[in-house]
Design a protein that fits this description.
Number of helices: 17
Distance between the termini: 66 Å
CATH architecture of the largest domain: Orthogonal Bundle
Shape: globular
Number of domains: 2
Structural class: alpha+beta
Number of strands: 11
């Protein structure tokens, strides 16, 4: 007999508390780079290095110099957000390791793609909470993929010309026990919402963070994944992400990927194994073809595409780099042409010429009135994110990777060398210029660390051949 949906049977299913959208977007690359630089390592090294590096970023001080409350904040960032919520690393009882999702983020600079992967892997119950909380979820029959369900509901509603609200997602989906048990379909939820609307029956959670925080956190993650847009109280599906949204919807009918029910949580060794297995699972790449997670500039800026671009495997970063270089090339031409049109032919796009250490050759023009023809060498570094980085935000930090050739060029050209950091966001494309990074590093204004070493060896170095 089909279960009758009663949304008034409410059930609070919380997740790890994160931060505001912009703060999560700001801190994600900082977390990711710290993890990449210190892992693999022992717990002692991991704690000390992560504590100090993050303390310098957030509080401009070492961890030991912080007060007790600020130290707790740093530990919360590391264990709860970077670890449990983001899955950037995992521990195997001896060493901390960087997760595959962390590696992918640093390789493609696509923050929405990272959040898509996170949302695909997430489920209730999961291994982020205390054993008692997990056991309660299991005993209450909770089996749910929240992000897959929300996207499926929005999709079917959209096809029927219906706009779903945040309040309705909170009450009828993310806090409805029968939905969380996996026994109610998206069709039943939509029909119940429409019936209540017709009867002028308004149902929503009580106000206050206790009742709504976990709803807001989950919608934040879908927003950071570029899959939805929130306009007032309305939740709108991003049509330009239809391909990956279909992947989410198709996953809804499948069993939970992580079989948490297979562990005897009354046994200490199985509890530890469950937490270890979850941390390994949660940080993995959720799909066999990772390129489907990629975020196009058109999708990020909410442009509907008749025929989506076919992204070839392994070229995501090249495509992003080309987009950034093209954008900077055009604004450089506009900048030079505005005051010195005779010099616009000096603006050259050279990104395809390997080994130069820069992507664009330009001139100072109006930014050096005495010597407008002085050369300007530009290295372009691009990334994609949902929120616009606020230069006045003291917690904002960013990291880029430079090749040896790029750093040599920075040293050689000094004040003529510039890094243009391009941020593609839904509402604006922001470009920030860092002039003379080599000197800024010498002055301690920026930090440059060697992260790759080349080893040359010959026959004399070989000890044994197997």
């Amino acid at each position: 007999m089909k279960e009758v949906f009663n949304p008034d049977i409410q059930y609070r299913c919380t997740i790890i508390r994160g931060k505001a959208q912009k703060e999560l977007d700001n801190l994600l690359p900082a977390y990711a780079n710290i993890v990449s630089e210190i892992c693999p390592c022992t717990k002692d090294v991991f704690d000390q290095e992560f504590n100090d590096r993050l303390s310098e970023i957030i509080y401009d001080d070492t961890f030991d110099n912080l007060g007790e409350n600020n130290q707790k904040t740093i530990r919360n960032h590391i264990t709860e957000i970077a670890g449990k919520l983001f899955g950037l690393f995992y521990f195997d009882n001896q060493y901390f390791y960087e997760s595959p999702s962390n590696e992918k983020l640093l390789a493609d600079n696509d923050q929405p793609a990272f959040f898509k992967n996170l949302c695909l892997n997430f489920q209730f119950p999961n291994g982020t909470q205390k054993i008692q909380t997990i056991e309660d979820k299991i005993n209450d029959g909770i089996k749910f993929k929240p992000f897959q369900f929300v996207l499926a509901l929005l999709s079917i509603a959209q096809k029927n010309g219906v706009v779903i609200t945040k309040d309705e997602i909170g009450y009828y989906v993310l806090n409805a026990k029968q939905v969380l048990q996996g026994i109610i379909s998206v069709e039943d939820v939509l029909s119940t919402v429409l019936k209540d609307r017709a009867n002028n029956s308004v149902k929503k959670l009580d106000s206050g963070s206790f009742h709504t925080q976990h709803i807001r956190e989950q919608l934040n993650l879908l927003t950071l994944a570029n899959l939805i847009n929130i306009e007032g109280n309305n939740v709108i599906l991003n049509k330009s992400e239809n391909q990956i949204i279909e992947v989410f919807i198709n996953e809804l009918s499948k069993p939970l990927k992580f079989d948490i029910f297979n562990y005897n949580l009354n046994k200490e060794d199985e509890k530890k194994q469950m937490y270890y297995d979850w941390s390994q699972y949660f940080g993995k790449i959720a799909v066999p073809n990772p390129e489907i997670l990629s975020t196009s500039i058109e999708a990020l800026q909410r442009e509907e595409i008749e025929k989506p671009k076919i992204v070839k495997k392994g070229v995501d970063q090249t495509i992003l780099g080309d987009e950034g270089e093209d954008y900077v090339f055009n604004i450089e031409k506009e900048r030079v042409n505005a005051t010195h049109p005779r010099l616009v032919n000096k603006v050259l796009l050279l990104g395809k010429q390997r080994g130069l250490g820069y992507d664009i050759s330009s001139v100072e023009a109006n930014e050096n009135r005495e010597e407008p023809e002085f050369a300007r060498f530009i290295e372009v570094k691009s990334t994609k994110r949902i929120t616009e980085p606020d230069i006045t935000d003291t917690t904002w930090t960013d990291t880029i990777n430079l090749t040896r050739k790029e750093w040599i060029a920075a040293k050689q050209y000094r004040s003529a060398y510039n890094i243009y950091r391009v941020y593609f966001t839904p509402n604006a494309t922001i470009v920030r210029k860092i002039n003379d990074p080599f000197s800024k590093n010498e002055q301690g204004i920026i930090t440059v660390l060697p992260t790759l070493y080349r080893m040359d060896f010959g026959s004399k170095s070989i000890d044994k051949q197997y």
